[in-house]
Amino acid sequence: MANPLKGEIPLKLGKETYKCRLTIDSLVRIEDELDKGILELATAIAEAKIRIRTLIVVLKYALRGGGNDFDDKKIGSIIQKVGIVVASTEVAKLLAATLTDQDSDEEDKKKEPVA
């Protein structure tokens, strides 16, 4: 089971749910491998301007971060099984969850004065 306190995010691809985690290091590796910034990738997914290779790269680092030992071929097989639309949607959710700082909302609430 994914542990959100460790930055782990459950990712549902077809009938399987995988534990994923994108660290700063993995985000840098994704950017380097695809030669695009992570926000640029998130925007491209939102605008349906995504390549399958991009999905494979993001999923590779996310799945490995979650403790799964998948190579590009295995990830491509998963994408083929669930479909590009489902895979794109799940990658978009994964990036959104990774890029959204959930803790900052909690910290802001703690700082609000009580009337």
Structural overview:
- With 115 residues, this protein is mainly alpha-helical.
- It is built from six helices and two strands.
- It has helices at residues 24-34, 38-46, 52-65, 72-82, 84-99, 102-111; strands at 8-13, 16-21.
- The protein has a two-stranded antiparallel ribbon.
- Strand 1 (8-13) and strand 2 form a beta hairpin.
- Residues 104-109 have low confidence and may be disordered.
Helices and strands, in order, run as EEHHHHHH
Global geometry: globular
Q: Tell me roughly what share of residues is in helical segments.
A: 55-70%
The major sheet is characterized as: 2 strands, antiparallel
Overall pLDDT, averaged?
84
The class by helix and strand makeup works out as mainly alpha
Rg from Cα: 15 Å
Protein topology:
Elements: E1 8-13, E2 16-21, H1 24-34, H2 38-46, H3 52-65, H4 72-82, H5 84-99, H6 102-111
Antiparallel strand pairs: 1-2
Brief write-up:
This protein has 115 residues and is mainly alpha-helical. The chain has helices spanning 24-34, 38-46, 52-65, 72-82, 84-99, 102-111; strands spanning 8-13, 16-21.
Question: Keywords, please?
Answer:
6 helices; 2 strands; 62% helix; mainly alpha; 115 residues; globular
